[in-house]
Amino acid sequence: MEKVKTICPYCGTGCSMELQVKDGRIIEIKGDAAHPVNQGELCLKGYYGYKHLSDNRRLTSPLIKKNGEFERASWDDALDYLAERLTAIKAEHGPDSFALFASARANNEDNYAAQKFTRAVMGTNNIDHCARLCHASTVSGLRMTLGSGSMTNGIPEIGSDSDVILIIGSNTAECHPLIARQVIWAKERGAKLIVIDPRWSDMANKADLFIPLRVGYNIPVINALIHTIIRENLHKPEFIAQHTDGFDELARSVEDYSPENVQIMTGIPAEQLIAAARIYANAKAAAILYAMGITQFTHGTGNVVALSNLAVITGQIGRPGAGVCPLRGQNNVQGACDLGSLPDVYPGYLKVTDEKIGAHFEAAWDATLSRKLGLQVTQVPAAIEEGKLRSLFVFGENPLMSDPDSGELRHAFAHLDLMVVTDMFMTESARLADVVLPVAGWGEKDGTFTNTERRVQRVRKAVPPPDGAREDWWVFSELAKRMGYGGMAYDGPQAIWDEVRRLVPATYSGISYERLEGNPGLCWPCPDEGHPGTPILHQDGKFATPTHKAQLIPVLFDPDILPKEKGLTFERPLLGHIAEHVSAEYPYLLTTGRRVHHYHTGTMTRKSPVLDQLAPEELIELNPADARALKVRDGDFIRVETRRGYIVARSLVTDRVQPRMIFGTFHYWEASCNELTGAGALDPDCGIPEYKISAANVTRSSPADAAAWLETIGKTTKINMQFIGTDSQSRR
């Protein structure tokens, strides 16, 4: 039996695992005991979420839609057809009529090839990916304040060095279980745990202090902590004077956010806010852990900036166990950003609008490059409907389920001249495409992932892909060649990675495939092969901002509810508000998230018999008081409706959610909550949509209504069985 060491393909923790391979098939997975992040353990998805690789629904042939039906094609015919169509659309409508959705699930090498194809071959910066929908506000917020939009510390430090951990807007135990394990180890050492979240969770159950805030009210709560810390002289004046700009303005901006005022605003007892502020500020090393309960708001950037303010004024940054730790949701969402799958930056976060940087990449790629900012994912539907965008390439993503307001996106896709999807399966998005290309998945190709702590790690091929499937980088290379560009003739992923190292040496030069062999990964920046990597950013108060100081920026919330008589004005405040309010017609507040058993749109985990048996269907969490009022019992079908549409699913009656609050996921095509979320209101700084707040109505549904709903959905999403692989190779 062969043993192959690689990295888990699910959340951003980056757990190392050993694949047990027999007769070309993965038969078991074990955790890597020597790895500092997971130390031999895995979560449910890590242990059991590999069956999709041998699933007989894998795509094994390129498909071209003709007269509304898919037909099989050879790779040569499919690529020639695409090259011809893309060239013609570009010639008629210009380079910016093309856009590409990159993949947070694909490796760094695939993402580099995708962004290079978009820029060097198609001539546009219209490339983005699902980071826009999860941590775009992290990138924009921490760039503003610290100069780098990334996690500041290493994961192992949480368990070994942090003596206070503040978790806010993160269901860590379900979404990042092995990071939650580090928190538990910290508590066993005596560390204090503060959890701030609108929903009760396993982490809340283990907290020393749990603060149940109202959904969307992160800013006033964080400002109340800052207010208390300044009022009680718990901040660090010397650190602030030497290493920050803007403290006086920040102090003025939080004057109205006393714990007493915020209690009136949120219902949180002032004593709890004061206690949290004291515990955090007095820590020797305090870590802030946050996720999409902070970022997925129209004021997500403001939430992130407020947390940065909190860490900086207390000096809780730049030291082991002390920092700001955004927990990334997908295995390589950090890497996809790092490698330039964003509309405003090249690899290494080098700005596309900078003339000198543009000239550097033009010389390296032997291509003319645009200096114009590209479209964000959330701008794409409108651009399609306005006729500006005519072709879209989607690789390794399922936006019809992961993006907000699925109905609007479905409508937009219908207006494209050409839509291309590369995937392992006929996903909900692939069914709307004109061309679908079968590609290799995790475990079937070599490359690197970058986890949430910036740790670059090797992923390795353990089994062959099904006959007919190809690697994503190869697809872009072959398309480029057919479109007359010779700068992507790679012989494998290592050649791509070496090009990245040459182009962005300050970040990656020291991270070679050779160094990563037998190594648990290296955290960028790593400028040369003698460098150990950089697990901790901003050490000794050195920040990556233009002034080399941390920027303290006021963040206000719903200014209309604050006293106006002071006439306070600020040079550069960020403003937060609730984008969608409940009403008589929509009296409930829907918030969304994930569950431990499944991942993203379920494309991989729902093909695991173990995981699907544990969580076979969507369950909408409903508070017991609301269930009684609606005459709904646990397990009854309910109808959830917002201004965008409705779904039908079973209820899960639980006091994990507050009264008049409901919770659901986007794992299940039968009842995806992204049919209900809105895409109209966006964060003005980063373009992230409002996933966490949707005004909703809930009614009891009969089984007949549920059956009718499933029949309706089935007509638009049922898999076309004609193109499911049935040969022994695809079943492996």
What's the gist of this structure?
The chain is 33% helix and 18% strand. The protein is of the alpha/beta class and 732 residues long.
Strand content: 15-25%
Structural class determined from secondary elements: alpha/beta
Write down the overall mean pLDDT.
Answer: 94
Strand order of the largest sheet: 5-4-18-17-16-6-7
Q: Can you tell me the residue ranges where pLDDT is under 50 for at least 5 consecutive residues? A: 562-567, 716-732
Biggest beta sheet attributes: 7 strands, mixed
Report helical residue fraction. Answer: 25-40%
Number of strands: 30
Radius of gyration from the alpha-carbon trace, in angstroms:
25 Å
* Number of discrete helical segments: 28
Give the overall form: globular
Q: How far is the N terminus from the C terminus? A: 16 Å
Question: What features would you describe in this structure?
Answer:
With 732 residues, this protein is α/β, with parallel strands linked by helices. The chain has 28 helices and 30 strands. The strands form eight sheets. The chain has a seven-stranded mixed β-sheet. It has a six-stranded mixed β-barrel with strand order 25-29-26-28-27-30. A five-stranded parallel β-sheet has the order 10-9-8-12-13. Helix 3 packs across helix 22 and helix 9 packs parallel to helix 15 (300-313). The longest helix is centred in the first third of the chain and has 19 residues, at 75-93. The model is unreliable at 562-567 and 716-732 (pLDDT under 50).
